[in-house]
């Protein structure tokens, strides 16, 4: 990796940290901050020096997607299991409020899982293109130096 460039893991950690910070700052001032950040370079792109690095990032994002998908199911189970502890109106209101919150949480988890799935697909496309380019370069090199 060239000097001054972040590893893929550092790029992801930076993305997450900056996104969380911007969201918290926006929330403090009543603004909805949509932090659309790119990768680890100044122009917002990822930099991979070999296929192994790219494979690691794909694996990491696949794990994230799986975790989010499992979270959706856990939220659904929790929503289904939420029942009022008593038959009074306040118990009913509290469970209804909980179910509304869980429904919003579920939708957010679904949106994040779809984002992760789409991102993994793009990373896999990039990996395929990278592999073809590497193979073409190796073939050209071998042809000139073989």
By oligomeric state, this entry counts as single chain
Main sheet properties? none
Radius of gyration: 22 Å
What would the average pLDDT be, to the nearest integer?
A: 79
Distance between the termini: 28 Å
Look up the CATH topology of the largest domain. Answer: Helix Hairpins
Low-pLDDT residue spans: 33-40
Number of helices in the DSSP assignment = 3
- Top-tier CATH class of the largest domain: Mainly Alpha
Structural domains: how many? 2
Task: Give the amount of beta strand, in percent.
Answer: under 5%
H-E string = HHH
- Structural class of the helices, strands and pairings? mainly alpha
The CATH architecture classification of the largest domain is Orthogonal Bundle
Principal-axes geometry comes out as elongated
CATH superfamily of the largest domain: HP0062-like domain
In total, the number of strands is 0
Question: Helix content range of the residues, please?
Answer: over 70%
What does this structure look like?
- This protein folds into two domains: 47 residues, no CATH class; 98 residues, HP0062-like domain (Helix Hairpins, Orthogonal Bundle), CATH 1.10.287.850.
- Helix 2 packs antiparallel against helix 3.
- It is elongated.
- It contains three helices and no strands.
- Helix content is 75%, strand content 0%.
- The chain is mostly helical.
- About 5% of the residues have low confidence.
């Amino acid at each position: 990796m060239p000097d001054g460039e972040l590893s893929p893991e550092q790029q992801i950690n930076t993305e997450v940290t900056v996104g969380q910070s911007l969201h918290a700052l926006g929330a403090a001032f009543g603004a909805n901050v949509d932090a659309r950040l790119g990768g680890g370079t100044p122009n917002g792109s990822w930099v991979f020096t070999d296929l192994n690095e790219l494979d690691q990032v794909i694996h990491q994002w696949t794990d994230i997607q799986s975790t989010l998908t499992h979270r959706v199911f856990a939220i659904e189970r929790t929503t289904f299991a939420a029942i009022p502890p008593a038959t009074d109106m306040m118990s009913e209101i509290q469970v209804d409020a909980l179910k509304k919150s869980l429904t919003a949480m579920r939708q957010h988890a679904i949106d994040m899982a779809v984002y992760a799935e789409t991102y993994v697909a793009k990373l896999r496309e990039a990996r395929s293109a990278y592999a073809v380019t590497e193979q073409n370069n190796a073939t050209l090199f071998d042809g000139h130096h073989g």
